[in-house]
Design brief:
Strand content: 25-35%
Helix content: 10-25%
Order of helices and strands: HEEEEEH
Structural class: alpha+beta
Shape: globular
C-alpha cells in the first residue's frame, strides 16, 4: 500500500516534469488513492476538450478528456507497465500522446465499455 505522502511527492515530481504549476490538481485521499492533474493544451482527436492526467494506485496513469460543459472524464489513453513509472517516463508518454496526428473519425457499431484507447 502506498503512503499518502509518497503519492503527493510523486504527483508533484510528475507535475514538475511536465512543466505544470500544479494549481489545477488534486489528490483523492480515499482508497484507492487517485491523482488528477489538469494538462495544458488539446489533443488532436479531441480539440474541444479539456485534458487531464489521472493516476490511481491500482491502474497507474491515464489521459482523459472532458467534453465542453460536461463533468464526466473519458479515458483516451493508458500508460501500461509499472503503476509508478519515473516522472520522466510519464512526461515523455504525455508528450507523445499530444503529438499524435489526428485520426479520421470512424463509425463502429460495436459497443465499448471501460477504457477507451
Amino acid at each position: 500500500m502506498v503512503a499518502l505522502a509518497q503519492v503527493l511527492d510523486y504527483a508533484l515530481r510528475v507535475t514538475r516534469e511536465l512543466g505544470l504549476s500544479g494549481e489545477s490538481s488534486c489528490v483523492d485521499r480515499d482508497r484507492p488513492l487517485r491523482v488528477y492533474i489538469a494538462v495544458d493544451g488539446r489533443l488532436p482527436d479531441h480539440p474541444d476538450c479539456d485534458v487531464a492526467l489521472l493516476w490511481s494506485e491500482c491502474h497507474g496513469w491515464a489521459i482523459a478528456v472532458e467534453e465542453p460543459g460536461g463533468s464526466e472524464l473519458t479515458v483516451v489513453a493508458h500508460l501500461g507497465g509499472a503503476v509508478e513509472p519515473p516522472p520522466r517516463t510519464v512526461a515523455r508518454w504525455v508528450r507523445r500522446v499530444f503529438a499524435r496526428p489526428s485520426r479520421p473519425a470512424t463509425v463502429s457499431t460495436a459497443v465499448h465499455s471501460g477504457h477507451v484507447a
